[in-house]
Amino acid sequence: MAAKRKSSRRPQKDSPDGRELLVLELQEIHSAESQLSRVLPKMAKAAETETLRQLLEQRQERGERLISEIDSALEEMDASPGRKKNVAAEGLVNDVREHVQEIEAGPALDAVLIGAMQKTEHYCIGAWGTAKSLAHALEEESVVEAMERAIEEGKSFDEQLTQLAENEVTPALLSQEGEEMEEEEEAPTARRSRKNGRHERRIHT
């Protein structure tokens, strides 16, 4: 008689209750903000546009405040930030690090930094919204207030980045590309001119 095949499924854990889910969400946000706080100074330093640098520095300050608020909320709930790393945030942050290392400072890097920061902020806004809904249902008003403020500031930050990209960074990038194309087009002409000049001198001599 054939032996019974062992199940490859992992044993299921008990479903967490609402409070445990909120703790998990806050821990995820705490990890995301902690990871972001370590890369934002590098982003600000690499940014060429002064406005972008200021926006990133302001985001750093808001993130530090949010981390402090989450620490307090978790303490009130008899929980800690934990050590589990937010892998979604880790991917976004690592992407930023690679861009800073691979692209030289200028409009192109600023455009990439804006795009990367907006992707990260959109993720954060979604996480804050989830935590806010859970906190509201559990009547954790301090968490609700912190998440509402984070969402409002996050949306404003995202809009400011969009305006900066449209009004300053993208035009500078396109202007730079246009200048490079003109230089490439002028180079063969200059070579032909020098060649023709040498040819004319040989004829005259």
Quick tags:
205 residues; mainly alpha; Ferritin
Mean pLDDT: 87
Structural category is: mainly alpha
Overall CATH architecture: Up-down Bundle
- Could you please say which CATH topology applies here? Ferritin
Kindly give the count of domains.
1
Distance between the termini: 105 Å
Report the uncertain regions. none
Number of helices: 5
* Topology, number of strands: 0
Give a verbal description of the structure.
The protein has five helices and no strands. The protein is an all-alpha fold and 205 residues long. The mean pLDDT is 87. Helix 1 runs antiparallel to helix 4 (107-137), helix 2 runs antiparallel to helix 5 and helix 4 (107-137) packs antiparallel against helix 5 (141-204). The chain has one domain: Ferritin, core subunit, four-helix bundle (Ferritin), CATH 1.20.1260.10.
How are the SSEs ordered, and which strands pair?
Elements: H1 18-46, H2 50-76, H3 87-102, H4 107-137, H5 141-204
Provide a short characterization of the protein structure.
This protein has 205 residues and is mainly α. The protein contains five helices and no strands.
